[in-house]
Design brief:
The mean pLDDT is 78. The radius of gyration is 18 Å and the shape is elongated. The protein has 7 helices and no strands.
Length: 143
């Protein structure tokens, strides 16, 4: 039985999507220059930004199907939401500290920072996989 979506549920979904959209905007506004400063070419930046379409095409339906079949004492969606939130926080911390981590792992040249770049692009892709969070949240609120 479907429950009727009240005003509080719709506001909750809208606010969460506003936060996700804001984080996307911040990441894309800063991401290209961050990657280029670490030595990634323009075509490499384009490849890094392919994460979004790939995620929407492949990962989101898989996570949706897995969350539909999951069962835990916390519910079907909440573990996926919590796991996605953890991944997002971890990836933001890695992206923000990529220069320092790269230096710690041996980057010495200012214009070319391969270790920092690997950390930042990997964290960027993990961040894009926020579908783990969004898809179950939409289902949790709307059903």
């Amino acid at each position: 039985e479907r429950r009727k979506a009240g005003c509080c549920l719709l506001v909750s979904l809208t606010i969460s999507m506003l936060g996700i959209g804001y984080s996307w905007s911040a990441q894309f506004a800063r991401g290209a220059s961050l990657f280029e400063n670490m030595g990634l070419s323009d075509s490499g930046v384009s490849l890094a930004f392919l994460a979004g379409p790939i995620c929407g095409l492949i990962v989101q339906p898989i996570i949706g199907a897995l969350s539909d079949q999951s069962s835990s004492r916390f519910g079907r969606r909440r573990p996926w939401i919590a796991g996605g939130l953890g991944l997002i926080v971890m990836s933001f911390l890695l992206i923000g500290n990529a220069y320092g981590l790269g230096t710690s792992f041996g980057d010495v040249h200012q214009n070319r920072r391969p270790r920092a770049l690997i950390i930042a692009v990997s964290a960027f892709w993990v961040r894009i996989l926020f579908s783990v969070l969004v898809n179950p949240y939409e289902e949790h609120v709307c059903t």
